[in-house]
Amino acid sequence: MTATEFQPAKTPVRQPILQARDLVKTFGRVVGLDGVSLDLYPGEVLAIIGDNGAGKSTLIKCLTGAEVPDSGELKVSGQTVHFKRPQDARVHGIETVYQNLAVSPALDVASNLFLGREERLPGPLGKLFRVLDTKGMRRKAKEELTRLGISTLQDVTVPVENLSGGQRQAVAVARAAAFGSKVVVLDEPTAALGVRESNQVLQLVRDLRDRGLPVILISHNMPHVFDVADRIHIQRLGKCAATITPQSHSMTDAVAIMTGAATA
Ligand SMILES: Nc1ncnc2c1ncn2[C@@H]1O[C@H](COP(=O)(O)OP(=O)(O)O)[C@@H](O)[C@H]1O
Ligand SMILES: [Mg+2]
Question: Which CATH number fits domain 14-104+177-259: 3.30.1510.10, 2.60.40.10, 3.40.50.300, 1.10.10.10?
Answer without folding.
Answer: 3.40.50.300
